[in-house]
Amino acid sequence: MYEPLTEHPALALDLEPYHLGSDDEFPTHAIVCDRLEGKMYVGDYPEVEKFLNIQHPPLPTLSPEEVEQLRHWIEEELANFDISTFQKLGMFELLAGHNQQQKQELVELTHWLDQQLTENSIRRYVEAANKGNWTAISVLQRFLQRIH
């Protein structure tokens, strides 16, 4: 779901030096979005992970009995598996697409990012594209398609 961030002209060139991960490689950097302040930060992945674990502590370690109860619960849930339920929870978006809440959040995020654009930021993309920067070229192409 971070694709709208990495491909939006408000951020794409600034994110270019960072490796946010791919299907083939683990990330070395991560994005933190402060929705209350309307700010985004990029940090080294281990540091961001540490920050997020402080903000949202991991679940406690389970006892062997709790693990067994959890295993039984998962088996029961999988017996009644329905992909739409997982989709509503935000899982399997690659396979099943985004749920309505995620779609709305993407629209809101894109709208907010659009508001961050300035004439200078677009000029920066044009200059980078003229120098052959592939990120700038592809972001401008997608942005032009979206606004036309």
List the helices and strands and how they pair.
Layout: H1 3-6, H2 12-15, E1 29-34, E2 39-44, H3 45-55, H4 64-79, H5 83-88, H6 93-96, H7 100-116, H8 119-130, H9 134-147
Antiparallel strand pairs: 1-2
Describe this protein's structure:
It is elongated, with a radius of gyration of 20 Å. The protein has a two-stranded antiparallel ribbon with strand order 1-2. It is mostly helical and about 150 residues long. The model has no long low-confidence stretch (mean pLDDT about 85). The protein has helices at about 5, 10-15, 45-55, 65-80, 85-90, 95, 100-115, 120-130, 135-145, and strands at about 30-35, 40-45. Helix 8 packs across helix 9 (about 135-145). A hairpin with a 4-residue loop joins strand 1 and strand 2 (about 40-45). The two termini are about 25 Å apart. The longest helix is centred in the C-terminal third of the chain and has 17 residues, at about 100-115.
